[in-house]
Design goal:
41% helix, 17-stranded mixed sheet, 17 strands, Jelly Rolls, alpha+beta
């Protein structure tokens, strides 16, 4: 009887170890609404502080949600609001650690500890980017197809969907969209709007949640506006393809019509002035007219549309757009130019 009890105890003990080995992280702290699901394609339920997490689990924060995942190796991943993350892979051997954490959307801080003589291969993936981590701390914003990374400590390698990485180091920013190769690292200069964005991202992924989430919700717009200014600088420096890419990142980051219109105007300017591609420029101007009828940039887009059609020798269509401008903006900034062009097209 005694031997049977010892055998049962041993089985239960070993089973508990195996079960514990399945758990790779703990939801060590949370605030606001935080959800959990055991695997993909099933409904979420409420996540409670202290719950153990294993490979395949998903964590999702709500509009006011914030959470810290403490990994078994001492590393931490802090999730800001409206963030969704899956623990996709995780394996610890004697001298190595491997893990993949998949982000559908949101904002996070990854603090990965590195031990001596320990090989670390962690990856944080979004649908269009990969951050390869060896032992570092960085912050990430993923919105739609765009991704923005800020380096805090160490070095991370940032990829798109191809095997060409850009290094993310301390106080630099790297970004990409649509799976393309990331931009070159940019130094985060004190006092710039990029510096403001980094500080806001740092605040919402700090050890304690912010008092409100307004700075989090506005963060993509701040970075998008910075990208428009940066893209303008790149274009003036003769880096036209890089400028177009940065303007596209701005478009993919924000839903604000005013910022999106500015990005499209800048893309149109690069195509028209520098790349001598009026067809591509025309497409940008038409998108502003069709998608954002209330923005002030529409007036300029309509004028540029007429002038580009004239350049392409679509004189009838150019006249239609000039007459449209005259009707909609009778006291507009370009009305004199419009009258001159209409006289030419009589």
């Amino acid at each position: 009887m005694k031997n049977q009890l010892l055998t049962i105890f041993a089985i239960l003990f070993l089973s508990s170890i195996c079960l514990a080995d399945d758990y790779v992280a703990t939801l060590s702290d949370k605030s606001g609404v935080v959800y959990l699901r055991d695997k993909n394609n099933i409904p979420y339920g409420e996540a409670k502080k202290g719950i153990k997490l294993k490979v395949g689990n998903w964590i999702k924060t709500g509009n006011d949600g914030w959470a810290i995942l403490s990994l078994v190796d001492g590393s931490k991943i802090t999730l800001a609001n409206n963030t969704e993350l899956e623990i996709t892979e995780f394996l610890i051997n004697k001298n190595s650690r491997q893990g993949v954490f998949s982000v559908s959307q949101g904002k996070l801080r990854a603090t990965i500890v590195r031990m001596s003589q320990d090989r670390v291969d962690y990856k944080v993936k979004s649908p269009t980017s990969v951050a390869g981590i060896k032992g570092t701390e960085f912050m990430m914003l993923s919105r739609g197809e765009a991704n923005v990374f800020f380096g805090n400590e160490g070095v991370a390698e940032i990829y798109g969907n191809v095997e060409q990485a850009k290094p993310l180091t301390v106080d630099t920013m790297v970004q990409n969209t649509r799976g393309f190769v990331p931009t070159d690292p940019v130094k985060v200069e004190q006092g710039t709007s990029l510096d403001v964005a980094k500080k806001h991202l740092s605040k919402i992924t700090a050890a304690k949640p912010p008092e409100d989430w307004e700075i989090s919700n506005n963060l993509p717009n701040i970075i998008a506006r910075w990208n428009i200014n940066y893209g303008h600088y790149l274009a003036d420096s003769g880096k036209y393809d890089e400028a177009l890419y940065v303007f596209q990142i701005a478009l993919d980051l924000t839903e604000k019509p005013e910022i999106r219109s500015d990005a499209r105007l800048e893309r149109g300017a690069v195509y028209a002035r520098f790349l001598k591609n009026p067809e591509a420029a025309l497409a940008e101007y038409l998108l502003i007219i069709e998608e954002y009828p209330e923005v002030p940039q529409r007036e300029l887009a309509l004028f540029y549309t007429a002038m580009t059609l004239y350049e392409l020798k679509f004189f009838h269509k150019a006249k239609e757009r000039l007459l449209q401008y005259k009707k909609e903006y009778p006291d507009g900034k370009y009305i004199g130019n419009v009258e001159t062009m209409l006289n030419i097209l009589k």
